[in-house]
């Protein structure tokens, strides 16, 4: 996994809940490519049609509130989003995102300084978030090495499989 992510910003406000990220009517699957076309459709009908691989979501407070479904970060990652930067997260979304290998950072100052369509660079190792459009840089708390490894593995399940395979050899 790359440690520097660069993408165009999709910006959303506060309290974006999991029902908006992936509506309940699509929860008959957890396959990323099947969820992706419906990601964010109830809040932004242009998202799924226009999102590009590597783009970044920037959002306000309490991103991912609502139900505890892991489908929300799966849909976001399946849509091609490389990273989410928010002012704060619902705790269960935060953990689910890590578990599915979606990098996320809390940085309220960055959220205030980044606009829709800006080009942003995120350094996963250092925790820096740079608005390439505006020329500002902020620092969020970077993930420790083991969580970066978990994210790079594609999430908790692939990480555990890799560890178990290593233990057998």
Question: Mind explaining what this structure looks like?
Answer:
The longest helix has 13 residues, at 156-168. The protein has helices at residues 18-21, 32-35, 47-50, 71-78, 91-99, 108-113, 145-152, 156-168; strands at residues 4-11, 56-59, 83-86, 104-106, 119-123, 128-131, 136-139. The chain starts with a strand and ends with a helix. The model has no long low-confidence stretch (mean pLDDT 95). It is an alpha/beta fold and 169 residues long. It is built from eight helices and seven strands; from the N terminus they run βαααβαβαβαβββαα. The protein has a seven-stranded mixed beta sheet with strand order 4-3-2-1-5-6-7. It is globular. It has a single domain, classed as Aconitase, domain 4, CATH 3.20.19.10.
């Amino acid at each position: 996994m790359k440690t520097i992510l660069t993408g165009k910003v999709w910006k959303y406000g506060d309290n974006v809940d999991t029902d908006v990220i992936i509506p309940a009517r699509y929860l008959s699957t957890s396959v990323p490519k099947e969820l992706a076309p419906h990601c964010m459709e109830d809040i932004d009908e242009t998202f799924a049609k226009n999102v590009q691989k590597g783009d970044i979501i920037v959002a306000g407070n309490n991103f991912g509130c609502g139900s505890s479904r892991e489908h929300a970060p799966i849909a976001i990652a399946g849509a091609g989003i490389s990273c989410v930067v928010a002012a704060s997260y619902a705790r269960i979304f935060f953990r689910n995102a890590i578990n599915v290998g979606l990098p996320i950072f809390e940085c309220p100052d960055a959220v205030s300084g980044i606009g829709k369509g800006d080009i942003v660079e995120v350094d996963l190792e250092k925790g820096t978030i740079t608005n390439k459009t505006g020329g500002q840089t902020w620092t969020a708390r970077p993930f420790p090495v083991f969580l970066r490894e978990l994210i790079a593995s594609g999430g908790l399940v692939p990480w555990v499989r890799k560890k178990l395979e290593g233990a057998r050899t």
